[in-house]
Every structure is written in structure tokens, then in C-alpha cells.
Design goal:
The structure holds 2 protein chains of 2 kinds. Chain A has helices at residues 5-29, 33-36, 66-77, 162-169, 176-202, 204-227, 283-295, 306-309, 337-348, 384-387, 417-423, 534-542, 548-553, and strands spanning 41-47, 52-57, 86-89, 101-110, 113-123, 152-156, 159-160, 232-241, 250-260, 263-267, 312-315, 364-372, 377-382, 427-433, 449-455, 460-466, 486-490, 498-499, 504-510, 514-520. Chain A is of the alpha+beta class. Classes of the chains: A alpha+beta, B alpha+beta.
Chain lengths: 560, 709
């Protein structure tokens, strides 16, 4: 068939508009703030073989697991896939990325022919297991973290399988979760209808040929990006501190990246073996981390489809910290993304120094649960507004202030302060940029933040998970690192704040009137601070994001 | 004889419409004068006086109302040339304005920067005061704390001050106290506060909107003062009204209180005019699109009312005031064609603008733009663009498409131009989809109204992609927004936050809040704008959601139900609206609802003029044929000779077979192979798909149609 190049462009835009529309629908209908405020979800369209047509990736770390799960489903069901089926999946041992990230898939038919799949995956507020919210720092096996859901049909040919529905949701704490799953099914139905209309309009033959042409053209774009990297073998590493079980434990993530013409291989075989705690990656969470890091180094306008990921090869052996064997605990796996990113940036730095950034702030996060005295209801709150640090600077650009973890790259939002004070009993005392937190350099790292919250209500439980509190992130080419992450508590009646010493922990019974204090560090700087544009430096000093002292001692600003 | 005048000032042209009390309509375009747009404003009035054949002084004395849409605020935000602005806020929250809740719109682009904050950090000050989420004072506010801030504001020569304190939507006393003190100590400075601009929950939305108001405030005030002064100098005794983003009009004094209401002053007039035209043709719902040089605006009208939204952004600055829901995408006559690294042709969003403009303008443009493709495809007449005022260089357009695009794609120039045409149409269809489908509306049920010079040669393809069966090119399409300005009512929006479940709601408080807003609105309309009470309508809106949800639905409620506290009716309405927007309701589950905000829209109805192109005797369409020209027919994917009609001739009532081009001085209409066109008795063009209307489209209203032409 003759390919109509123009039609290929139209296909690409149409697919994008479908996944965007699915995403808007999810934002508007879901209930958990993790979904509707923070947008911790992804929507996608796949062809009959499970190849990605397009995705809308609010939180990219979830995203590159949908295609592999789609292929698991296709293999598992074979001919037993029918119009009106709805399949649910979260199992990390069959290509899921994290237990809490639950995916819904709907097959799409053109007449009797399977032509594609629509999918939506979101981070659920609860997924069963020992601890509400799913983050159990004491877990050593998957069952202490979550209910496992390998691919199973929730609907068969349009009919709800009530028994399956009941079985699953009998194992999950919050009523909000089935409501949000309904919203995900709704978004998939939207995608199904739109793709159906689209295929009907152009016919199957045109659809197949032009979809393939889109993949090919996108693959070409990605290959030309890879060709811009000099051939060679590059290595980098970064550290992970504490597995939640053994104080002082540390682990290494080691990348070996081989570039040969238009091929690139990311090999993480030399990373540490898996941990005994929940600090373990899954195959797809690690591949997502690799992919999203690499995407930051290439043309941001490359369409997101199978052609984009085809040239990327991953080696992440089972049994390593990035791909733990059954039945390990893995909930922390998504949050190994910062270290994966560091190891890739560090490896490729010498080859493409103007495409990489200095170190991003690593995630350190708190999750509060307790009773709201005014409403008498239980609440679950991930403290997004405390966790956002800065991104690393790069050649020509300062880092982005208060962007948060690289896994989301600015796709996740802080709660609004006034809504937060309505939804939780707490009082926000401060949420501001932290002076001198951006790593110094010719280009400054993004600023970190300091957050102070007065915790109200009795019996607050706090789960802490993260890193970045032991080793400062790094600057590049003479640029400086930033300050460490930390969380401190000041108990009522006590003088002075007390550091929360472990970066994976659960603290029960926090009394009313305790002050929570968090520093999220900035990003690393790039280039010698002495070379910083003086006008920019003076503006930073005037704005009190760089102190006069630092301007003098680190940047070498001469007194006027 | 009395006159009403609408004036819309754009980047290149100032559009005017003048309607006499006898219904005679004059339409005019004059060059804008960006250095002081009031010059173009007065030039325009002088020129229409000439066209009306009335001496200038006499004409001005006979003007009843001038309604004006201004881009002063919009441009200040787009170019960041607003006032030097300071922000004073609660201790601990100095950076909320700049942080923008931590979003980076382009996640994979590390070169992407945050927006420049409208108040820079060194001009963001905090004071030690605090009110909690229930409105209780936790820390008293002492004005003396402002003294050092005032010193800095003076030293820095700040021009405008915004005040926004935490939870002021619950208790505004601290904020008001601060504002009073600042106004006393900083005479001559523009001072505004969040409780005056947007007293509703969500700190980020409020602080951002207040900062926008302060940033544009002094400039808008200065502009309006200058304009009223100039109008005084020509002895204008009528009323000057300003178009707001919500599609309503107000007197300049009201705008000065909250200048942020004018950020969409121009484009808001298009759906306002759309509501009028759709009603005229017997439709309730319409989509209006306006294709200009750099952007394409799309908006919808439901049940003859423009749709408002509080989700607006301009240049990435968040403005949460009720504004007409308008989607703007980077597609216009100046959108440039380029090839991405994968070898695929793309159009825009970058634009050649008016300068250097498309290659065919011969003003230095080198990169082929949409207008160049339109010229190659025969839709534009190189010798009759803007009535022949601007000669188009077809050869240069051909060369640039050849060199920049066609050779690289391995296609002919014609194939490439056709591709550019199809891609930009597809982009615009995407914008229309966003404003309709993605908001839960089916565009096929809407009258599609096309405004702007370039839109009507692209609309049949946009319609085809969305299966919209017909579109309307109104008689005033080229100055559509100016016309819309004469059609807007006086409109004021008020809001109060009241965050409560219905179970715990205080009936007295609920009603009192509405009474308070009503009183404010009546005062503005009756005392300040001289509206007679019988012309006032009041529309309450409730921001509601199911308990447990995060995003609320804005529900238009019945005033009687509110005053009489008939909550069941409100609940019923909410279930229905939720079902319409999201495909389900939780009525059967009896899920409880909660209230977030109360809103009140107070409207003073204005007389609506009827636009009449004049009472010339109709001529036959045949007699209006100017030439036969080769144009690109998308259905056939080839060029074909088609008749070109002179659309400025009075061909009222004619039915014209497609394919053809109807050419006017200010616009061209392309009627494609599958379409026919009916000209109504006001000179508007109704272009419809032949197959969908066997026997031809029939006007819903009893208008004369000559079927024999």
C-alpha cells in the first residue's frame, strides 16, 4: 500500500488526542487526591499485538510497563478475548511495576477483528497488605505489601463478574478504590470508542499500514538521536542507602551503556543483588526509569509510540536490586528511579556533556494517616508539598526550582494549601524556597524547599520513605552539589527539633501539636561557579535565593 | 438618529461596526496604532462618520454607546510589560506565586523554564498574621509591620501592590486592614487584594489571579483614563462600555477595580456574537471559531448562552475568574510549515505573524506559511487580497515551498501545499474537538460559525473531519468580535466560599451570602450603570461535588430554589449534570454532596441591534461570477476550475452550487465539492453538505429563498 505521509501525521495527532482525552476524564472523575490532584496515573493505546500507539504520561515511571503487561494479557488469553472484556492487573511478577499501580485494559474490536487496546493505570490509595497506603517499610515479601492481581477479567463480554469484583475489593481497605477503578474503566471505554471510530473511518488496511509507517518514522527519529552519541561503552554508578531492614546498609546501581551507531544497550547486570527489604525494583519499573531518563536527553518532540522505544535495549537481570525475584517486596522500586537516572547521566556525561543534567534531588517523602478531629473521618495524605526539591542544572540552563523527583519531572502537583487545611487537620506554617539550596555553578541547580507543618489530631502515623539524606547529590564540571534531604519533628513541650534518623520508617502515635519540618534539597550545579553570569548572580542575591556570603565565598563575587 | 459603535482593537487592524437606530450597519477596518491605540480608535470613528456621511461633531453627539474590547491587559501578560508589582502575603508563603504548585508543563524538556513571576521574589513580602481554615484568627495582624515593607516599596519604585493572605476567603479582616493602610500610605499606587478580586478557596488560584490584576491594573487604568479623556475632548456624551472576559460589558470604573476581568476582552466577543447569530437561524447551540494570523480561537454556546469556565490560563499565568471558555491553538495564516527529524511535515505552532509574515506578503518572510499554501491551492486571489491592497507573490510562495519542504519530502509543490492545508485543518479540528468532545458535547449537533479572514477557506475540511454537516459565515465575519461587543449584556460575577456538607449547612448563612452578593450587584448595575431594575436577571451558581471527590461541578441553580431553600431540587439538578459531564451519577447510591463556593452572576440586559447589510436590491448569483479559477478540491485531491463569485454583491437568497469560491474584500469562502451554499437575506453564507440535506438546506425561520438561482 502507498503510504500517505500526511495521513501518518494525522494518525499521530489523533492517537495523542485520544490518550489526552482519557487522561482528562480520569482527572475529573477520580476521588483519591493521589490521582485527581497529583495525577499519579497514565493512559495509553496499544495495537492488537500490544505495541504502543501513544501514551499520556503524567507520571512517567508508571508508563513503560503498560505495553509489556498488554503482551502478557494477549499471551494469557489467546483467542479468549472479546468485545466488552475488562481486564485488571497489578502483579509485579508478571510485568507490573508497583503493587499500588493498578492497570485496566480494554480490547478494541473493528467488527470481529481485534485492532487494539486502551489502558489506564493509576496509583491506588490502598492495595491491601499489612499497611494502609501500601508503603510497608518492614515488608520482606509481596503479600505483606499488597493483594496480587495477575491479569483477570472484571467484565466478560460486557458482563460484570461480580464474584471477581467482590473478591478483589474485599481485600482492599478504602471504598474510594473501587470508585477510582470505575473511573479507569470509563477512561478506557472512551479510548475504545474513539479508536473504533477512527479505524472505521480509514479501514483496517490503511490503519495497519500507516500505524506501521508512524512507528518506522519515529524509530528513525530515535535512531538519529542515538547516532548523535559517540560510539563507546560508558559506565556510571550511584548509591542507594538503607533497605528498611538493616541499618547502615547500602547498595550500588551500576550502568554500562553501549552505544554502537543507532543501537543503545543499557546493562545494569553489575548492580547489587536484591535487598531483603522492600527496596527492590521490578523489571518494568527499572526499564521505565531508564526510558524516562533517556527521553530527557533527546528531542522532546519525538512522538511516544513503539518506534520510540524500539531502539532501546535493556539488560536488567533477575535477582538484582533492579529486578527482584519472586516473592520479594518491591513497593519502593519506583523510587529507585533517581539513582538509575544518576547512573545514566554520570555514564553518558563525558560523551554528551551538553545533554545531561547534574544530579536531581532524590525523593524523601512522608505519608500521614490519622483521624480528622473536625470530620471524625480517617484520612490518608501523601505530603507532596514537602518532597519537591530542585532539578540538576545543565549546560546553558539553570535547574528547575521545586520540581520534585525525576520520576515525575514536574507532572505531579503540590496540594493547594487551603484545600490541604480543609482535608487534613494540619496547619501549614511554611512552604518556601530554601536559600543556597540550588547547587552552585555556572548554571545553578534548581532550588529546594523547606516545609513546616503543625500536625493536629491525636494518633497521627507517619510513614517515611526515600533517600537523599546521606549522600549529597552531585554537581558537574566544577558545579557543586546541594544540601541533604531531612525530616525533623519537634514534639510539643520539647525544645529543639529531632531528626528522623531512618529514611524508611514508620512512626506511630505522633501527638497533637508536633511540628513537622522537611528540607527537600536542590539540584546540582553545572560548571565552575566563578563563571556564573554576574547579572544572574546579583539577581539571585537580590531575591535571597543565594546568600551574600555564598556569592562571595563560592561564586567569588567581589564586593562592590 | 442615534448610533451604537463596537470597536475591537487587534494587532494589525482596528475593527469597527456602527449600527444606526434605523438598523443601518457600517463595517470598517482601519490600521491599529500600537504605540497609542486610542489614536486608531478615534481614526476609526472619524472614518465611519465619513462613511455614514455625517459631519464628525454631529456624528459623535449622536453616539449612544461605544463598546470596546481592549487587548491592553492581554498584551501586558503576553509581553510581560505590566506594572512593577509587589506582593504581600502571609509569613511562610512567600513563594506560592512562583512555585505554581511545582508543575513543569514539558516533562521531558530540561531546557524548559518556569514562567517569570509577575512579582519577583525581592518584591514579595510577608507579614506575621494567620487565620485558620475555619476563619479563626491565630495570629493578630499589626499594620505597623507594613512600615518597613512600605519603605522598600517606595525605594524600589513599585507601581502596583497585591495583597493575598492565607484563608482570607474565610475571614477577610486582615487583608482589608492591610489594604486600607497601604492605600493611605501609598497614595497614587494601585493596591488590590485577593478578597476584592476572587474571594474563594484555593490559595494558588487566588494569589495568581490577584497578582495578574495588580500587574495589568495601572496600565489598564491609564489606558482607560486616556481614552475617556480623548472621548471627552471630542465631546462624546454617550456611554463607554468595556468588554470583559466573561462576555459581558461594564463601565470603565468597574474595570479599574479589577482589571483582570479584561484579559480576554477581545476574543470573548466571538461567542457572544455567535449566540446571537445561532438564535437568528433558529439554533440553540453553536461553536464559534476565529482564525487569525497566528492563532485559532474556538468557543461554544449552549442554549443560547456562552459557556464560562474558571480554568483559564494566559501565557501560563493562572486566572481563576469566570471567563468564556475559549481554546486557543497556534494555527493561523502565518503558521509555518516544517519537517521534523522523522521526515514528517508539520504546521506551526510557530508563526511568521504579521511581520515578516508569509512569504507571499513580500515583507521578508522566507519560511512557507499556511497563507502561502492557500495561495498555491488557488483559494486566494493574488490580486484581490484585502481587496487588492496587498499584492501576493505567488511565485515566491511556490519557490519557498519547493525549497524548504517539497524537495525534502520528495513531493510536488502542489502535493506539499495540499499537505500543509490538510495538516493545519487537522490541527484546528483538534482545537474544536477540545472545546466540544472533550467537554462532553457532540460537535455535530452544533451550528459551526466561522469568523476571521482566513477561517472560511478551511472550514469545510474542519467540518468534514468532525462530521459537522454545515457551517455559517456571518455577514460580519471579518469584524465578528466588534459586532459581538454590541451584543453583550452588562454582567458582574461575584463569589463567596462556603465549604460545608449540606447536612451541616446553615440555612441563614447560605441565603445571607447570596443576598450580600445580590446587593453588591444591584448597586453596581442600578447606581453606577443606570440599568432599570426590570432589565436585571440574577443567576446563582453552586460549586458542588460528591463528598469524597476533589473536583467540583459548577451548577446553575434556580434562584427560587435557593431563596426557599428547596435543596432536593438542587440535588436533582446536580445528579443530572454530573451524569452529563462524566457519564454517571451516584443518585442511586444516595451519595452525599458538599458545597465549595457560591457564585452569583448579575446581568443587566441591553437592547440588541440587528445587523443589516443595507437594503440593496438582490442580484442573481450568476451575475456575480467574476472568473473561473483553478482551486484544489480535497475530495478529488486535484486542482479543478471553479467559478469565483463576488460576495460583496447583494446575492441575497441565492443558492450556489459547490465547488466554488465566494470572494469578499475582507474574506473568502471556499465551498468544496461536497457542499452547496445558501446566502440568507442578511448576506450571511450557510455552507452545507449536499448529501446530508436532500433538496438543499432550508432556513428554519421563514426567510425568503429563491430556489431558482
Amino acid at each position: 500500500m502507498k503510504i500517505d505521509k500526511i495521513l501518518v501525521s494525522i494518525f499521530q495527532r489523533a492517537f495523542k488526542s485520544i490518550t489526552d482525552e482519557m487522561s482528562i476524564s480520569l482527572t475529573k472523575t477520580t476521588r483519591s487526591p493521589i490521582l485527581c490532584e497529583a495525577k499519579d496515573f497514565v493512559t495509553g493505546l496499544y495495537d492488537a499485538k500490544g505495541q504502543m500507539l501513544e501514551q499520556t504520561e503524567n507520571l512517567p515511571i508508571l508508563s513503560f510497563s503498560l505495553g509489556p503487561v498488554c503482551r502478557v494479557i494477549i499471551e494469557q488469553y489467546g483467542d479468549d478475548i472479546h468485545e466488552g472484556d475488562v481486564i485488571i492487573h497489578n502483579d509485579v511478577f508478571s510485568m507490573g511495576n508497583q503493587n499500588n499501580d493498578v492497570a485496566i485494559f480494554k480490547p478494541i474490536f473493528h467488527g470481529k477483528v481485534l485492532v487494539g487496546w486502551s489502558a489506564a493505570k493509576g496509583h491506588q490509595a490502598d492495595i491491601g497488605g499489612a499497611v494502609q497506603g501500601g508503603y510497608n517499610p518492614n515488608a520482606t515479601e509481596v503479600w505483606q505489601e499488597a493483594i496480587r492481581i495477575p491479569a483477570v477479567k472484571l467484565f466478560e463480554k460486557g458482563n460484570l463478574r461480580k464474584d471477581v469484583w467482590n473478591l478483589i475489593f474485599a481485600n482492599i481497605r478504602l471504598q474510594m478504590v473501587p470508585e477510582d477503578i470505575k473511573a479507569q474503566i470509563g477512561a478506557c471505554t472512551l479510548g475504545e470508542r474513539r479508536l473504533q471510530t477512527f479505524v472505521a473511518k480509514y479501514g483496517l488496511e490503511v490503519f495497519d499500514a500507516h500505524k506501521q509507517a508512524l512507528f518506522d518514522s519515529t524509530e528513525k527519529m530515535m535512531q538519529s538521536e542515538i547516532r548523535n552519541i559517540p560510539n563507546g561503552v560508558y559506565e556510571g554508578e550511584s548509591m542507594v542507602y538503607y533497605d528498611g531492614k538493616h541499618k547502615g546498609s547500602k547498595f550500588v546501581i551500576r550502568s554500562k551503556i553501549t552505544v554502537k551507531n543507532e543501537d543503545i544497550i543499557f546493562d545494569f547486570s553489575n548492580s547489587s543483588p536484591q535487598t531483603k527489604g522492600f527496596v527492590n525494583g521490578t523489571y518494568t519499573s527499572s526499564c521505565s526509569a531508564i526510558t524516562l531518563t533517556f527521553l530527557q536527553m533527546v528531542n522532546p518532540n519525538i512522538p511516544h509510540n513503539e518506534g520510540m522505544i524500539k531502539p532501546l535495549k535493556y539488560i536488567v537481570p533477575e535477582g538484582t536490586i533492579l529486578n527482584a525475584s519472586y516473592p520479594a517486596a518491591t513497593t519502593f522500586g519506583n523510587h529507585l528511579c533517581p539513582q538509575v537516572a544518576d547512573s545514566i547521566f554520570k555514564a553518558l556525561g563525558p560523551a554528551v556533556p551538553d545533554r545531561i543534567t547534574a544530579g536531581w534531588n532524590h525523593l524523601l517523602c512522608s505519608l500521614f494517616t490519622g483521624n480528622h478531629p473536625r470530620t471524625g473521618k480517617k484520612y490518608v495524605d501523601i505530603c507532596f508539598l514537602g518532597l519537591k526539591g530542585g532539578s540538576g542544572a545543565m549546560k546553558g540552563d539553570d535547574g528547575y526550582d521545586h520540581i520534585g523527583m525525576i520520576d515525575a519531572s514536574g507532572g505531579v502537583l503540590d496540594q493547594d494549601y487551603e484545600m490541604y487545611e480543609q482535608q487534613t487537620p494540619h496547619l501549614i506554617l511554611q512552604h518556601e524556597y530554601l536559600c543556597d539550596s540550588g547547587g552552585a555553578g555556572q548554571w545553578r541547580g534548581g532550588l529546594g524547599t523547606e516545609t513546616k507543618i503543625l500536625l493536629r489530631g491525636d494518633d497521627t502515623t507517619m510513614v517515611v520513605f526515600g533517600d537523599g539524606d546521606i549522600e549529597p547529590n552531585y554537581g558537574l564540571f566544577g558545579g557543586k552539589g546541594s544540601v541533604l534531604n531531612k525530616i525533623e519533628l519537634k514534639y510539643p513541650g520539647k525544645s529543639g527539633r529531632k531528626l528522623v534518623p531512618l529514611n524508611k520508617d514508620m512512626i506511630h502515635g505522633i501527638p497533637d501539636g508536633t511540628t513537622y519540618y522537611q528540607v527537600a534539597g536542590g539540584g546540582g550545579g553545572y560548571g565552575q561557579p566563578g563563571l556564573r553570569d554576574r547579572e544572574k548572580l546579583l539577581t539571585d542575591v537580590k531575591n535571597e535565593v543565594v546568600s551574600a556570603k555564598a556569592a562571595k565565598s563560592i561564586y567569588g563575587l567581589k564586593q562592590k | 438618529m442615534k448610533y451604537n459603535v463596537g470597536i475591537d482593537i487587534g494587532g494589525t487592524f482596528t475593527d469597527l461596526i456602527c449600527v444606526s437606530s434605523e438598523g443601518k450597519t457600517i463595517v470598517h477596518k482601519t490600521l491599529s496604532t500600537p504605540q497609542d491605540s486610542s489614536i486608531g480608535f478615534l481614526n476609526g470613528i472619524r472614518e465611519i462618520a465619513e462613511m455614514a456621511g455625517v459631519p464628525f461633531g454631529k456624528f459623535v453627539a449622536a453616539i449612544d454607546t461605544i463598546v470596546h474590547g481592549t487587548t491592553v491587559a492581554t498584551n501586558a501578560l503576553l509581553t510581560l510589560r505590566g506594572a512593577k508589582t509587589a506582593l504581600i502575603t502571609t509569613k511562610g508563603f512567600r513563594d506560592a506565586l512562583e512555585m505554581r504548585r511545582g508543575i513543569r508543563e514539558e516533562q521531558f524538556n530540561n531546557h524548559y523554564h518556569n514562567v517569570t513571576p509577575l512579582a519577583p521574589r525581592h518584591l514579595r513580602f510577608t507579614v506575621d498574621e494567620r487565620i485558620d481554615s475555619e476563619g479563626k484568627v491565630l495570629k493578630e495582624f499589626d499594620e505597623q509591620e507594613l512600615l518597613p515593607v512600605i519603605e522598600k516599596i517606595k525605594a524600589e519604585k513599585v507601581e502596583s501592590v497585591a495583597v493575598c493572605f492565607m484563608n482570607s476567603y474565610k475571614n477577610a479582616t486582615h487583608e482589608l486592614k492591610a489594604v486600607k493602610f497601604l492605600r493611605k500610605k501609598l497614595k497614587g499606587l494601585f493596591v488590590t487584594s485577593s478578597c476584592e478580586v476572587l474571594p474563594s478557596i484555593r490559595f494558588y488560584e487566588r494569589v495568581s489571579t490577584t497578582a495578574v490584576s495588580a500587574f495589568v491594573g495601572p496600565i489598564v487604568a491609564k489606558y482607560l483614563d486616556n481614552l475617556t479623556h480623548k472621548l471627552d475632548s471630542i465631546n462624546f456624551k454617550g456611554t463607554l462600555l468595556i468588554m470583559q472576559s466573561n462576555g459581558g460589558v461594564v463601565v470603565p470604573e468597574q474595570v479599574k477595580k479589577n482589571p483582570a476581568v479584561t484579559v480576554l476582552s477581545g476574543p470573548a466577543a466571538a461567542p457572544t456574537a455567535g449566540a446571537y447569530y445561532s438564535k437568528l437561524l433558529g439554533f440553540k447551540n453553536c461553536i464559534t471559531v476565529d482564525m487569525g494570523g497566528t492563532s485559532f480561537d474556538a468557543a461554544i454556546v449552549i442554549d443560547n448562552e456562552c459557556v464560562t469556565s474558571t480554568e483559564g490560563n494566559i501565557n501560563r499565568y493562572r486566572i481563576a475568574l469566570p471567563s468564556l471558555d475559549i481554546i486557543t491553538i497556534g494555527a493561523g495564516g502565518g503558521s509555518i510549515g516544517w519537517i521534523n527529524d522523522g521526515g514528517l511535515l508539520q504546521m506551526g505552532p510557530q508563526s511568521a505573524g504579521a511581520l515578516p509574515g508569509p512569504v507571499c506578503y513580500s515583507r521578508g518572510g522566507k519560511i512557507p506559511a499556511c497563507t502561502d499554501a492557500d495561495l498555491i491551492l488557488g483559494y486566494l486571489n493574488p490580486d484581490f487580497f484585502a481587496g487588492g491592497k496587498l499584492k501576493l507573490d505567488k511565485e515566491a510562495a511556490h519557490q519557498s515551498i519547493q525549497n524548504e519542504l517539497a524537495d525534502k519530502l520528495g513531493l510536488s509543490v502542489l502535493e506539499t501545499a495540499a499537505g500543509m492545508y490538510r495538516i493545519i485543518n487537522s490541527n484546528m479540528a483538534q482545537g474544536v474537538r477540545e472545546i466540544s468532545v472533550e467537554r462532553g458535547y457532540d460537535p455535530r449537533e452544533f451550528l459551526f460559525i466561522v469568523a476571521g479572514g482566513a477561517g472560511s477557506i478551511h472550514s469545510s475540511e474542519i467540518c468534514k473531519e468532525l462530521e459537522i454537516p454545515m457551517f455559517l459565515v456571518p455577514n460580519v465575519s471579518s469584524i465578528f468580535c466588534a459586532a459581538g461587543m454590541l451584543l453583550g449584556d452588562l454582567k458582574h460575577d461575584y463569589i463567596r466560599s462556603y465549604f460545608t456538607s449540606f447536612k451541616n449547612m446553615d440555612r441563614k448563612k447560605f441565603i445571607a451570602l447570596f443576598e450580600e452578593m445580590k446587593k453588591e450587584g444591584m448597586k453596581a448595575l442600578i447606581e453606577e450603570e443606570g440599568v432599570s431594575p426590570e432589565k436585571i436577571t440574577i443567576q446563582p451558581v453552586l460549586d458542588l461535588r460528591y463528598v469524597g471527590q476533589y473536583h467540583e461541578v459548577q451548577l446553575e441553580a434556580n434562584l427560587d430554589d435557593i431563596i426557599n431553600y428547596r435543596l432536593e431540587n438542587i440535588f436533582d439538578l446536580f445528579h443530572k449534570e454530573h451524569n452529563r459531564q462524566f457519564g454517571y451519577s451516584l443518585k442511586e447510591e444516595q451519595t452525599e454532596m458538599e458545597l465549595i463556593n457560591l457564585r452569583l452572576r448579575v446581568i443587566g440586559r441591553k437592547e440588541r441591534p440587528e445587523f443589516n447589510a443595507g437594503k440593496s436590491t438582490p442580484v442573481t448569483a450568476k451575475s456575480a461570477i467574476k472568473e473561473q479559477r483553478s482551486v484544489y478540491i480535497p475530495e478529488l485531491n486535484e486542482m479543478k476550475k471553479v467559478p469565483v463569485y463576488d460576495g460583496d454583491k447583494p446575492i441575497y437568497g441565492a443558492r450556489i452550487k459547490g465547488p466554488c469560491v465566494i470572494e469578499k474584500i475582507t474574506t473568502s469562502v471556499f465551498v468544496s465539492e461536497a457542499y452547496d451554499c445558501l446566502v440568507d437575506d442578511l448576506g450571511s453564507f450557510i455552507v452545507y453538505e449536499r448529501e446530508k440535506f436532500p433538496g438543499g438546506y432550508k432556513l428554519k425561520k421563514n426567510k425568503k429563498v429563491d430556489e431558482n438561482r
